[in-house]
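Reading a protein record of the kind used here takes only a little practice. Think of the row as the fold of the chain written in a discrete alphabet. A record is reproduced here so that you can trace the correspondence yourselves:
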Amino acid sequence: MPDSHPTGGRRGTHGPQGVGVLGAMAIGIGGMVGGGIFAVLGTAVELAGGATPLSFALAGSIALLTAHSYARLSATHPSAGGTVSFLDRAFGADLWTGTINLLLWFSYLVTIALYASAFGAYGARLWTPHPSPLLHHALISAAIVLPVAINLLNAEFVSRTEIYIVVAKLLVLLVVAIAGTQSIDPARLGVGTWPDLPRVLTGGMIIFVAYEGFELIANAGEDARDPKRSLPPAFYASVLFVIALYVALSAVTVGSLPLEEIDAASEYALAAAARPALGPAGFTMVGVAALLSTFSAVNATIYGNGRLAYVLAKEGELPELFERRVWNRPVGAVLATGFLALLLANLLDVTQIAIIASAGFLMIFTAVNLSAWKLARSIRMHPALALLSAFASGSALILLVVHTSRDNPIALVLIAFSWCGCLIGEAVYQRVSGREFTVGDDPPTMPDSR
């Protein structure tokens, strides 16, 4: 949700009463059910086959463990800075936290590419049954260029339209999940259709990016009505709701279509899954919802990520160029975000993008869980549970890396390159610029762009 972007939202936008449980839940659900499910469902089925619902449940269980760490951190140390603030509070502002913060910005950048890729796939298929690569890439590019322009010219468009799009896409997905139960063939979900356990586990880790949005609830800490009472239940309820939704949608997809048909429609699998129960109208309905959802997700993520870059620049972790504003907007940060996302979306396939994004967020969540462990006494969390959460997300990351090294070595090289780039870039920038890390109780926020 735009008002709770990764930098900490615009203060006061929720009125004098502040954000309650339902408002915080809406932020979490809107952040998770963005473009991820439209983009990665086919990728998960390719790996996990009939066990795809189990893969989504396993990924969701790791998200739920990490959500508990976020819930305790947010309740005790409410801050518009969210993840950035928790890491800085636990470990101090240094090269380590600077690198993870930079990785957070990069990982959101990769999710923009993921959403744009899904927009291109669904849009091209709605346009014609046999789209050309040129049309596909033109739509991908449009899905990034237009939101960049919107963010530079009229950023308030993001917050004015987002709530309606979130409601519309949830209604469509619930219709597909409920109506699709009529066309499920239980034999397609049977244990006999499951691959070996490592592929089931890996399927869940590759699509983990579909769950990352719950962390945006933490950015509502400053605007929460009562952080101790409203934020923890919002974390738990939003993640549990999305787990149930994703498991249902994946069961409908795998149970309604032969695996070879899902493979053929991998990039728009959810629309194909709606056809058996709802006919051609169902395919079109899901396709339109996917276009609205992914475009909205690109728009909101550019909005938030541009401001995250601004905050990191103010803390001395990115060049001063990212601090520059025109019309009270972070123009340099928005343009850099859009340009890099444009390159990733057009040069990589959706599986590689999903792997890079999921690996980034698993690393970030491991760091946040370790922050919860370090601050366990002050946030009233059992240290063993914090370590278990860190172990779960860290183990998932290792599993994903091992699988990627065998099946997609190019993606592994890209992960290593981007992570090393964050580390080396942060170290070199600090040495060359002479700027020092600075951090307070809360990172600086962007002024209103209205």
Remarks:
- Residues 1-16, 440-450 have pLDDT under 50 and may be disordered.
- The CA atoms of residues 90 and 319 lie 24 Å apart.
- The longest helix spans residues 269-314.
